[in-house]
Amino acid sequence: EIDGFQGYRMQARYVKVAPGATIRIHDHFGRPAFSYVVNTTVDQYRSDLPGPLRMKPGDLSSETNVAHWWRNTGGYTLTFYVVDLKPLGEKDAAAS
Fold first, then answer.
1. DSSP, res 50
2. What is the largest CA-CA distance in the chain?
């Protein structure tokens, strides 16, 4: 247990996104996350930035109290790892 995180569960997963495809807009209000890009490039569009954040392999981003969506701008399938804290009882979002 980590003090202050009672009522949350940690989830870790990897996500794959086809070239040119997107991950729909969603938010991380009350659900902090970290994302690590494994391969290719991806643009992350965030509510706290005026333009896209271009990420490349090895980049890590933190998503806390932000809404965002992603577009795979690379030439092959994007893989990235996501670890987030999710409130207990919150349903999993459908993959898109």
1. S
2. 43
